[in-house]
Amino acid sequence: MAQQPMSTPGAERGARPQANAPFFFEGEAQKRALSYVSYALNKGRGVFLLTGKADTGKSALAAKIRDGLRAEGTEVAWLSAANIGGNDLLRRIAASFGLAHYSLPRSRILGALEDHLREHARGGKCPLLVIDEADSLQVADLTEIATLCKLRTSGRYLLQIFLIGRQLPLAELAEGGRANGMEQLVATYRLSALSQAELDPFIGGWAAHLGHAVPPPLPRHLGQRLMAWSGGRPGRLSGLCEQLGVRLEQGALEAWDEDLVETLVEGVEQESAVVRPAAPPQGLAGAAATVPARGPSGLNSGPALARRDPRPAPAPSGAEPAAQALATPAPETAEVVTETALVAEKPPVARTPRPRPAGGAVQPIDTPLAAICGGAEEALLLAPLLTMLSERFGRCTLLDHRGDVDLTRGPWPALGDRVALRPVGVEEDGPSGAGATPLVGNLEQAAALLSGEVVRLLLCIDDSDATLALALAAQKRGIPVARLEAGRRAAETGKSESVNQALLDRLADALLVPDPLAQVNLLMEGIQRKRIRETGSLRVDALAAALAAHGVRLSQLVKARRGGASPAKEGYALVALRDDAHCSPGKLELLLRVLRDIGEMVPVRLVASTCVMDILNRTGIVAEREKWNIERLQPLDPMLSARYLGRARLVVTDSEYLQVESTALRVPCITLAEHTVWPVTVECGNNRLCRLNPVELIEAASVALTEEIPVSAVPSLWDGHASTRIVNALKRWLA
User: Fold this and answer.
1) What is the largest CA-CA distance in the chain?
2) Which residue stretches of 272-419 are H helix?
């Protein structure tokens, strides 16, 4: 029985789009494509080909089809062919339908798949298989697809297949179709870009979909600028709309101007994980190096990680003549590298050198409150607390151990001159780096910082040797010490961090713990209960502040989760890598295979530290990210944690980064370690510890994406108000 034409639930009643529904723009090309889809669905059999250039909205159109069919009760499976190699296609298809396939022979997989399809046929439905990135399919894969298209029961076909790609070999399919059994090719359509007349409806529809005020029409010259930049491709325009959304959250847009358009375009380019290089100069085109395929000891799954495209890069067909004139074609004999490695550089840190007294003496701290942190990330945790303390008790000093805090970014500009920054890990007016002389290198130097008889309280969140020296000096001078995030312990008790943590907790006058398990650690070490107070986690406060900066309240998100609301179905798995120990050749291969399999279930976005990004560049992963189902890859920036978690359905991390934040938002988390400094996240069921084992990790990801998180999965005081409780606890020293 043929399927009925697809319809969007609620569309005929004029219903408002659901908040979690992705935006889909029905331009002229999209409407025509949907009519072809309806024709193919009515056939109830065969293969439909959808082609088009990059970012023309092929995957969005297929997602529209998928969601419509699923709403009508039809099973739709989705997989990407970009990472399929050898005889792997049938296993990937079985996995996309949720069938077991590990260690099973091909005959058993095919039998299980056929039984699964027959079960659906009894209900009068013909499942749909969508294969994205179908350009990578080989002749053997087409033969496999042809075999599946022939499956019938009682004269009814069991499966329909949609192939999506940039430039599928239609001529070869037509010529070799009968040999490969591809007589079932029922329709094809090539999706084109938007016209300039469709820019305003696209942007206005996107804004209305998210509940924003519709922007005014674009002036003609600015519309031409956007067309020249985007080529009318919906994928690029969607990125521009995301940048525009930040502006619309602050109020309606009254008028467009050139500065606004350039700012939005620049924001999209910065968000892009992989940049397209300009054509190499004449004579140097062949000098670009590629990463050769590795032998048995390296990455040996599939072709080499960096490929070359022997074809010259064409100019976008939808671009204006001005854009085509700016495009410099590569020489016909030159090979053009399709994607280039991303160079992850930290933004420059602006520091004002502080004058030092003659003779090299250390300038004492001249504020009543001082706080020491281990770097930019820990400084972000202190920002909400220092904001409240500076409002009540005056100016404070932030001591930066690593010297990478930048007061011109994030929440710091709002504090103005209420926070004075002093780097203590390097000379204040000297160079940073391996050869720099520490300002706090021993107890005597630490005592000199506190010698001004002005400091009334020292806050410690770091566990470095410099922090320990300052805490000792403070106790010798009778200055109270408050230990933030106290009670946490490193996995190995012999590590320097764990020793310093225990010593700092012994020295502190006030121990402010983030969760009940941290309090238990202190009590078991013999610390008096009267020195301990549970206040909640400052990480949650920093997350709440970042969300508030974008007009979102943490309590609203938590309440929605408690009410049973599930994450957006179009969300992604966020993978955060900071430890380069996972980037050795053997471990990196295992990790990429896991990401490839997770990518079959949900899109994968990878954020990596500078050292990890360097390794990914050298091994060619950045250039070939699509082969490993990595939708986006970008440098890790702690200031963007809230943005990373915005639509995440799953978090995979190899450090303590995002364990607390994901638990606070009830986003399932998998930690690539055997221990964690946040055991409460494991105890409450939100975080799972896994070794780097493919079977174990894929099972954990499947469970995390399908099972609901318990209502009580968040500690009671992780509500974004830890700073208020800490200020109340510190009143007696600062009053």
Assistant:
1) 96
2) 321-326, 376-393
Go through the chain and tell me how many residues it has: 735
The per-residue pLDDT for range 399-457, each reduced to its tens digit, is 988 888 888 888 888 888 899 998 876 444 444 433 344 445 567 888 888 887 889 99
Check: CB of residue 141 under 8 Å from CB of residue 87. Answer: no
Sign of CA dihedral 67, 143, 192, 324: positive
Residue 620, judged by CB atoms within 10 A of its CB (0-12, 13-18, 19+), counts as buried
Q: What is the mean pLDDT of residues 649-670?
A: 89
Q: What is the pLDDT of residues 360-414, one digit of tens each?
A: 567 889 999 999 998 888 899 999 999 999 888 888 999 988 888 888 888 888 8
Rounded CA-CA distance 155/529 in Å is 76
Which stretch of DSSP H or E encloses residue 484? strand 481-484
Answer with the residue of higher pLDDT: 249 or 241.
Answer: 241
Q: Two tokens at 206?
A: 């996107």
What pLDDT, in 10s, does the model give residues 517-572?
999 989 988 888 889 999 999 999 999 998 888 778 888 777 665 544 444 456 88
Give Cα separations from 246 to 51, 128, 207, 259, 552 (angstroms): 33, 37, 11, 16, 11
As a whole number of angstroms, the distance between CA 533 and CA 483 comes to 11
Residue 625: phi, psi to the nearest 5? -60, -35
Q: How many beta carbons lie within 10 A of that of residue 79, not counting itself?
A: 22
- Per cent of the chain over pLDDT 90 is 14
What does residue 513 show for φ and ψ, rounded to 5 degrees?
-95, 150
Nearest to 643 by CA among 654, 653, 658: 658
Q: Tell me the pLDDT tens digit for each residue of 128-163.
A: 888 888 877 777 777 788 888 888 887 788 888 888
Rounded to whole angstroms, the Cα distance separating 68 from 408 reads 47
* DSSP tag of 499: H
0.90 surpassed by pTM: no
458 within 8 A of 372, measured Cβ to Cβ: yes
Q: At what angle do helices 585-601 and 610-619 cross, to 10 degrees?
A: 90
Helix, strand, or coil (residue 451): coil
pLDDT tens, position by position, 499-510: 888 899 999 999
In the structure encoding, which two tokens stand for residue 502, read together?
């225990």
CA atoms of 157 and 509, how far apart (whole Å): 75
Query: pLDDT value at position 457?
Result: 92
Q: Are 523 and 529 in contact (CB under 8 A)?
A: yes
Residue 103's pLDDT band, with cuts at 50, 70 and 90, is: low
**How far apart are alpha carbons 77 and 63 in whole angstroms?**
11
Q: d(Cα 431, Cα 351) in Å, to the nearest integer?
A: 11
- Residue 703 and residue 513 in contact, taking contact as beta carbons nearer than 8 Å: no
Cβ atoms 593, 301 nearer than 8 A: yes
Alpha carbon distance 504, 500 (integer Å): 6
Measured at the alpha carbon of residue 22, what is the angle toward residues 20 and 24, in degrees to the nearest 5? 150
Rounded-to-10 torsion of CA 457, 464, 487, 418: 40
Q: Cα separations (Å) of 498 from 501, 659, 689?
A: 5, 19, 20
pLDDT band for position 43 (cuts 50, 70, 90) = confident
d(CA 411, CA 542): 10
Distances (CA, A) of 373 to 155, 272, 397, 403, 519: 71, 31, 11, 10, 22
What is the mean pLDDT of the segment spanning 102-117? 82
- State the burial class of residue 33 (Cβ atoms within 10 Å of its Cβ: 0-12, 13-18, 19+): buried
Beta bridge partners of 79: 131
- CA dihedral 191→197→200→202, nearest 10 degrees, is -10
Residue 83 DSSP code: T
Q: Pick 269 or 483 by higher pLDDT.
A: 483
